[in-house]
């Protein structure tokens, strides 16, 4: 099924009543065998059994013969069906299957709003909350976040919202996965904007769940700006960003008198992609600061070389933390010059946070590290 992005965009949101659509032929959708890495993850992967069970309401158009089928095969937790080889086809068909139920929910919300004694223009649209869920541990949620999550009509959640956090959602709420992984976006950012707008205009309490803090590498600012331009009020509920939560877990002070006078958050991705976006290394190579790199696994070798080239000592203490604050947390400690190699040896996977700076040596785990060896810690 060859569709351009523009064509797909019109098909998707016409079903929500935004534009007139044509017919769409559906292909069989997605299948996956949950391997040990995916099944052990505390987060929502693009093909996780928990996700399909949680979001199954959105595939309830039983008249469609190509509806997703999910089955359990003993302890292996195999999701069985045939798969188009093209990942974009999987995404397009996945969205096409969701649209009938999303349209139904939109109509239900409109009717509910009207039955409460008013028209949407008189009472105003519904509420949109951008909610930070922290680095993974549900105990790190704010009380305000829990209250909003439990009162939501519809929740759009990212890949790095942990399953433990999603278990707090109220029984009558609807969940919709809009996560992104490298090479696979279940929804484009523009589509997420339109979903938030459509349901807010219908009078729903819409919650956008994001890992960490919505306004720290979470694209929350883009969503807030778009909705405000459409006349929708947005309320932001901050979350504990990964830098703070994971550093606290390891006993690393991000700033410390006489050691680090500032902390700097960097992204390992560029807006346009590519393998070497880290042009900021020249200004970031400050031995008196702490650097925290988000989404930096693939670009760390280049970043480390550039930081050293611009004056950061090769023996600067550093740490890489996979799935921080969760029971699956794994940590590598090493000097900056060795960190990329040690991460590769340990086979850390996303999400992994990287902390670079002299403050790392203040962690109670750092004394286990000698000058010649690195330390691998598994929670």
Short description:
The chain is 33% helix and 17% strand. With 379 residues, the protein is an alpha/beta fold.
Helix content: 25-40%
User: From N to C, what is the helix and strand string?
Assistant: HEHHEHHEHEHEEEHEHEHEHEHEEHEE
- Adjacency order of strands in the biggest sheet: 10-11-14-12-13-15
Total helical segments? 13
Structural class: alpha/beta
Would you identify the regions where 5 or more consecutive residues have pLDDT less than 50? 1-15, 17-39, 62-85
Let me know the average pLDDT. 77
What is the distance, rounded to the nearest whole angstrom, between the alpha carbons of the first and last residues?
45 Å
How would you sum up the major sheet? 6 strands, mixed
What portion of the residues fall into strands of 2 or more residues? 15-25%
Rg on CA atoms, Å: 22 Å
Shape: elongated
* Count of distinct strands: 15
EC number: 2.1.1.107
Family: Belongs to the precorrin methyltransferase family.
Domain Tetrapyrrole methylase: 128-340
Protein name: uroporphyrinogen-III C-methyltransferase
